[in-house]
Amino acid sequence: MSNSKKSKKQPTSPKDQNLEQFREEGRNKTMTTNQGVKVNDTNNSLKAGERGGTLLEDFILREKITHFDHERIPERIVHARGSGAHGYFELYENQSNYTKARIFTDTNRKTPVFVRFSTVAGSKGSADLARDVRGFSTKFYTEEGIFDLVGNNMPIFFIQDAMKFPDLIHAVKPEPDREIPQAASAHDTFYDFVSLTTETLHNHIWVMSDRAIPRSLRMMEGFGIHTFRLINEEGKSHFVKFHWKPLLGVHSVTWDEAVKIHGADTDFHRRDLWEAIEAGHYPEWELGFQIVPEEDEHKFDFDLLDPTKLIPEEMVPVQRIGKMTLNRNPDNFFAETEQVAFHPGHLVPGLDFTNDPLLQGRLFSYTDTQLSRLGSPNFHELPINRPINEVHNNQRDAHMRTTVNKGKTAYFPNSIGGGCPHLAKMAEGGFTSYEERIDASKIRERSESFNDHFSQPALFYRSLEEWEKNHVAAAYTFEIGKCTYDHIKKRMLYVIAQIDNELAKKVAKGIGMEIPKEIDNPINQAIGADADVQKYQPGKKKNYLDKSKALSQTHLKSDSIISRKIAFLVSDGFDGDDMMKVKKELEEKGAVPQLIATHGGTVKCDKGDEHKVDAALLTTESVLFDAIFVPGGEKSLEALLKEAKAKKFINEALKHCKAIAVNKEGEKLLDETYGKNFKDDASVYINDSVTNFIKGIANHRNWKREEKAQDIPA
Ligand code: HDD
After folding, report:
1. Which of 10, 26, 266, 573 could form a disulfide with 636 if both were Cys (CB 3.0 to 4.6 A apart)?
2. Domains in the chain: how many in total?
3. Which residues line ligand 1 (CB under 6 A)?
4. CA–CA dist 114, 499 (Å, integer)
5. 533-548, pLDDT tens digit by residue?
6. Inside any domain, residue 588
7. Is the domain of 334 the same as that of 302?
8. What interface predicted TM-score (ipTM) does this complex get?
């Protein structure tokens, strides 16, 4: 983990230099209109007399208001809410066996990247902690052009064919008559669709798991999802799945926390990413390849072209081939994070697509959406979207063109322009599509090899630890419990039972219904059986692997506490030495201790020294922290004990299974809360060493506590 103090703002990469020419800052400059005319007054419009009518000739007023009136552009139809950051990618080892893409063969390169994380369903202003998939899009500005890896934090997708994407999104978005609920899948239309479209069930069970409520955008995996191709210099193709593995481990919050964070800080993830980068705690991910040789394409029990299937890491291990570091926050949210335009079709030589029908449909959708969102086919000229290498072609004009193309010719072939821009010879690395042999009939059908909808959701569920399974059951119960149509709830129980009967029983109990036996074919019941529907029913469940370790977060931890936020609960008179000792040791490990006091301003320790308060109890919440420390100090404890909020802090942290350390008199606060029942808990530290406390924080949560702790009425 990098640990330098401040993100650098000087141009540090080719992309940064390229952005630098577009940056503007008004410091020490005179205000002008957009036409460059100096402005003396931006507070008063031009009037006919002090109390008279405003004059139409006031071009300064007109320009200011007109520009303001048009400030907004349409938000993304999906992934509207997002947060971005700049960084770079470095390769560990030459991958030329598999690909000729220079970013994967040249270990001397530092390829600039821009990453945008997002939620899917909510609007631009929706809360970060929605139970949802997270988008994980990376723009690699390579010297051979732009490569976009437009993935998610889950390794599979809801549907198998792009044709169904509008249906999926219409079902999950707020219901169109009442525009409710915002950024939430827990409603009738979504479950109507999911229960009728069993191919969704794999991605859906991931959304019911803790992966859908990450602790931080920096603590989640990323996946390219589709099977892509890598092409080497000899033209040989290997199939590949892309993985991002976070060096901070994979961690989540509980649903109870997510609900409370919604209120305490709707920007929780955006703030967390921003603050970590500003503090020099640069998030890092390793890029992994899962490689399948061409000749092994058909050796699996599922189809590699089916995006609702993952390749278990036990079957094909992930080779970590490089590392991405995010080290710079954007200068301007709109110019960069909002205007960035990703596209799975942005590829460089050495990479290629497969016939995954979801991927193929995406190749159309992304440019199309930029046309309405950014308003012009010239969106590639926006600073954030510009490649770092030169662009030359005969495309011309259109809205807001900024390139000034010189010369007479805008066609090919030409002789007047010397035949330029000339075609890339193969030696110069022009893009050539993989020559896949095709001999087929034109048909509108789904391959029967895509016909297994239950084996992998079942594998996922089996692979989870008990605490994770409990969270999944609770999530299904919550979501389906929010539906209002009984037939939808029944159909959901029916399909969950096909994933795992015990899971379905728990959910059925929670929503107060029986698992129906009579629906033997949910799709036929709902839409009427015809030949096609009969043919493409979910196939029989297969069991090709009992469990996959990589699917459970238990196995995806790290021992780092970098950037973890620790609340130190204090009031005047706290034990200064005690506080400073713990603070120093935590800071040495990269954690971020914050003084949370009974009042704002400064707080005095028992030695009389003043310490700046980071937040008063009134202005913050337990759910915004990873762990709590209460130092000693008689007077401090007396004051804390009078504050109901201090007790609430402890009770909530206990409920959410977080590490809590108390020293000396600090124990009194524990005794006055549910803490008194948890003194033997493995991550409650009473006068213990900071080293042990650090282990507890790195462990993220003590899930063994959860069964008992969920009775805490916090
Ligand atoms: Fe998509 C945006 C990820 C299938 C159509 N998608 C978008 C973003 C991510 C994904 C991360 C946000 C990009 C950003 O930050 O600007 N989408 C996926 C993944 C998919 C997927 C991982 C399946 C594996 N998407 C998908 C399909 C379609 C779309 C099948 C249409 C047929 N996606 C879009 C879009 C968006 C988009 C409407 C909205 C904004 C944008 O493209 O630029 O075109």
Report:
1. 573
2. 3
3. 76-79, 82, 116, 118, 135, 137, 150-152, 157, 162, 165, 225-226, 307, 340-342, 358, 361-362, 365-366, 369
4. 38
5. 455 567 778 999 999 9
6. yes
7. yes
8. 0.99
